[in-house]
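Retro notes (design track)

What went well: tokenization of the new backbones is finally stable.
What didn't: we kept losing track of which sequence belonged to which structure.
Fix going forward: every design gets posted as structure first, then sequence, in one message. First example under the new rule, 309 residues:
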């Protein structure tokens, strides 16, 4: 059922299946769809004490099969993108695959690696998304963020965003990205397209597309280790390992796919089993990239406290 609250679209008891790339069935008690970041800020002011959750394309998210009581703010309608010579200013809800194509249309290089990443800009900056030796922070100049704790808009430089591997200051502070500005380089469009095609072919051969619902890379690659997370999982003999309707992807062991009707408990159990096997064999504690959202069962709560410690 849809309501209008201060002109912001609100959906009650909203099914989230099509708003997470893992396709977990989950019901949100309140689902808001602001049209611009002014409305997004207004919502934060209203729900200051209720710890709302912001989502974009729903990748890297595990929704609880028991539902989500927290207010959910969807940014997918906030997607302005303005090019000026070699710079571009982009709002948080634009999908980065779309951004990659728009840059190509302008003959601008720097976003080729984004073509296969199923995220919005907000999620990409939050996680400092990267692929093929590039990250979103490489060509970022500055960002406008909302400090939800102090109720103020901040303009931050790249240095102030404190980027590192799969990390930004947005994860440490109660900051929400509103928009970001990037500087790209002029390049021959054929070279840009060739690089984009190369990246897409690589992902197609190695990683599941969204016809195999998944939440993206499950674990961060461990530091000070010669092997990636996927290689460690593979060395534990877990390729194709399955719990319920969740399965370790055959072509890349750092992906877990939903084979049909996976639940958040299925996903939690398989992530925890992988974590334990790698720890036992290599004495390495893999750190999940996935963010759990919603009501946890006692079993899930116990396991995620260990996984996120």
């Amino acid at each position: 059922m849809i309501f209008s609250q201060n002109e912001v679209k609100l959906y009650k008891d909203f099914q989230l299946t099509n708003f997470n790339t893992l396709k977990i069935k989950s019901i949100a008690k309140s689902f808001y769809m602001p049209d611009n970041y002014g409305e997004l800020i207004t919502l934060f002011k209203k729900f200051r004490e209720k710890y709302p959750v912001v989502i974009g394309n729903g990748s890297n998210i595990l929704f609880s099969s028991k539902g989500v009581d927290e207010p959910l703010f969807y940014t997918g309608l906030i997607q302005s993108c303005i090019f000026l010579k070699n710079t571009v200013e982009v709002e948080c809800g634009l999908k980065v695959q779309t951004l990659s194509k728009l840059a190509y249309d302008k003959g601008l290089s720097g976003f080729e690696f984004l073509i296969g990443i199923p995220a919005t800009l907000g999620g990409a900056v939050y996680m400092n998304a990267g692929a093929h030796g590039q990250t979103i922070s490489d060509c970022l100049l500055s960002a406008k963020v909302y400090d939800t704790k102090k109720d103020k808009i901040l303009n931050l430089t790249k240095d102030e965003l404190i980027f590192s591997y799969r990390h930004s200051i947005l994860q440490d502070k109660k900051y929400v990205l509103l928009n970001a500005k990037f500087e790209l380089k002029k390049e021959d469009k054929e070279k840009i397209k060739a690089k984009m095609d190369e990246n897409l072919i690589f992902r197609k051969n190695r990683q599941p597309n969204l016809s195999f619902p998944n939440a993206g890379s499950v674990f961060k690659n461990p530091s000070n280790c010669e092997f990636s997370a996927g290689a460690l999982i593979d060395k534990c003999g877990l390729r194709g390992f399955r719990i319920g309707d969740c399965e370790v992807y055959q072509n890349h062991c750092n992906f877990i796919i939903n084979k049909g009707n996976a639940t958040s408990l299925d996903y939690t159990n398989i992530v925890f089993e992988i974590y334990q096997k790698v720890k036992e064999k290599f004495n390495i504690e893999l750190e999940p990239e996935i963010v759990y959202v919603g009501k946890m069962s006692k079993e899930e709560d116990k396991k995620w406290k260990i996984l996120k410690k």
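Added context from the reviewer: Confidence is low (pLDDT under 50) at residues 1-5.
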